[in-house]
Design brief:
The protein is of the alpha/beta class. It is built from 3 helices and 3 strands; from the N terminus they run H-H-E-H-E-E. A 3-stranded parallel beta sheet has the order 2-1-3, covered by helices on one side. Helix 3 links the parallel strand 1 and strand 2. Helix 2 packs across helix 3. It is globular.
């Protein structure tokens, strides 16, 4: 169209096509299985630290997997502990130098 993504409607066919392509690409890159949803959320990152568990858990008894790989994911997991049970899939490292991905419960967040 010749215009940037921030200039078009999120309901336009061009945006929908870009979002669909991005979804396919991120699933391929991160090997996300079809039975998992990819959520594209608006807003600031730290605001989503509470929004994600509050919108995805059915009760406070649910368990949500967190894979802590850095400061942001450490803060997200800490915030989620206010609302649900957090399972640290791998031990939180002293320094953040890698991405130790493992599959666990049906809800996981990788930051």
């Amino acid at each position: 169209t010749g215009i940037s993504i921030v200039e078009i409607s999120h309901r336009s066919p061009e945006f929908t096509a870009l979002l669909d392509e991005t979804d396919v690409n991120i699933r391929e890159i991160l090997e996300i299985p079809d039975n998992y949803k990819v959520l594209w959320l608006a807003g600031g990152a730290s605001g989503l630290f509470s929004a994600i568990p509050l919108n995805l858990i059915a009760s406070k008894d649910d368990v949500v997997d967190y894979i802590v790989t850095g400061t942001w994911s450490r803060n997200a997991a800490k915030e989620a502990e206010k609302y649900t049970n957090v399972n640290y899939v791998v031990p939180v490292p002293a320094d953040f130098t890698g991405l130790p991905i493992e599959r666990g419960n049906e809800t996981s967040q990788v930051c």
